[in-house]
Amino acid sequence: MEGDWPFPQSQNTAVISQRSVVFEGAPILYVTHDKDDDGWQFLDGKSNPAPDSAAVVSFAEIVAHDPSLIELADLPAGWVATRRSITKPWVRVRRAGNDT
Description:
Elements: E1 14-18, H1 19-22, E2 30-33, E3 40-43, E4 54-58, H2 59-65, E5 79-82, E6 91-94
Antiparallel strand pairs: 1-4, 2-3, 2-5, 5-6
């Protein structure tokens, strides 16, 4: 996938996910692209994840886990994408407090 990689960050960039996603197969339902550090988070969508539930993986690993994430390659920094289930489309929303 090296030549077809659609994200501006490299495949080996570290991203944040959750143990429930990475090790238990929970679906990714909430994605953030942070404005302050251009980082990404791929979460299961449950409210207020505990800090000890975090898992750091490579960008390539999380996309291999859920190839539909490629649809979010152009998600601007400062935005989030959510969906109700893996069969529903992504909905993009600018995070509150972001002017761009």
